[in-house]
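Renewal narrative, Specific Aim 1. Our central claim is that a sequence can be written position by position from structural information alone. The example that follows is taken directly from our test logs and has not been curated for this report. It begins with the structure tokens describing the chain, in the order in which they were read.
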């Protein structure tokens, strides 16, 4: 069985109800800090269940970093934050070999990429060479430094934020890097009621400071295994293929095979969120709106990737 086989996954000794309880507790825990973004929190959890990484893109100050911190704080694993800046070097991300005079050998000093949840804050502020330090870890869950390859911890999730305002001070993320994010999410401004609720919570002590883990790493690993075993019938795999092919035929750059795999893995996570061990068409359609658009480049200036995905969802039949 290859890594691209999404119809079955590693064996799990966790029941469906156990996995459902884990993700429900995490969502409720995060919502003690984050107000008005239930949908986005669900999307992050389904991405993590699908063993993927998330890109949060929006204007400054809408809670991107706080959301990532709250998710990380809900697990008892390790959390590291990388503040991407123009002078950040690849070794600052992956780690470096340092000569030890006492032992007369080089010792590896791991970088912040070696954590269960890694927050890449304003990832597009760093030049492409530094951004590329993430690629191997995100795709293969390993890091190579000076010819030596080391595994990152499992589970492993990168949650990156992207600044969309100061375009003259940022670098565009290359397509190869964007394609490694299972989802790209936008938070947006809260409505009046949610913003008032948020202000009430944070005027005194910020709730993130007292947030405690509600799930162990072992529990979440088993939940991931349960998700990967969620059944995907052949018609849904065919439907996913047709959606991807539609974007390739009607756009300058369509969804890659990696994107199709990501869509089905996210759909498996969505099934767990609804306490099911099988994927339904609505899982695929819900996840397609955040898994596909950032992988697409259109031929028309008046059409976005989201527009093309919605067109595909409106046009492509679920069954032929």
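The sequence written for that structure reads:
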């Amino acid at each position: 069985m290859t890594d691209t086989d999404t119809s079955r996954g590693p064996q799990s000794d966790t029941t469906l109800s156990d996995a459902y309880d884990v993700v429900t507790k995490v969502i409720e825990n995060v919502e003690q800090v984050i107000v008005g973004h239930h949908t986005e929190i669900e999307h992050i959890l389904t991405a993590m269940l699908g063993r993927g990484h998330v890109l949060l893109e929006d204007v400054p100050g809408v809670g991107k970093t706080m959301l990532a911190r709250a998710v990380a704080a809900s697990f008892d694993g390790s959390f590291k934050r990388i503040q991407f800046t123009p002078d950040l070097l690849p070794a600052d991300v992956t780690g470096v070999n340092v000569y030890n005079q006492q032992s007369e050998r080089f010792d590896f000093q791991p970088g912040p990429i070696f954590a269960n949840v890694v927050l890449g804050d304003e990832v597009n502020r760093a030049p492409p060479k530094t951004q590329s330090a993430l690629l191997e870890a995100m795709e293969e869950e390993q890091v190579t430094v000076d010819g030596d390859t080391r595994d990152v911890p499992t589970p492993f999730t990168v949650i990156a934020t992207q600044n969309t305002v100061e375009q003259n001070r940022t670098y565009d993320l290359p397509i190869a890097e964007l394609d490694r994010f299972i989802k790209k999410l936008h938070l947006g401004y809260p409505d009046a009621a949610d913003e008032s609720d948020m202000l009430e919570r944070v005027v005194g002590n910020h709730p993130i400071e007292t947030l405690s883990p509600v799930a162990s790493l072992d529990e979440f690993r088993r939940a991931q295994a349960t998700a990967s075993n969620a059944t995907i019938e052949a018609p849904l795999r065919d439907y996913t293929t047709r959606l991807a092919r539609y974007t390739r035929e009607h756009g300058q750059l369509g969804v890659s095979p990696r994107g199709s795999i990501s869509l089905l893995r996210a759909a498996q996570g969505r099934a767990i969120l609804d306490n099911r061990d099988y994927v339904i068409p609505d899982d695929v359609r819900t996840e397609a709106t955040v898994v596909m658009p950032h992988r697409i480049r259109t031929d028309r200036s008046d059409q976005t990737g989201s527009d093309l995905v919605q067109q595909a969802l409106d046009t492509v039949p679920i069954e032929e």
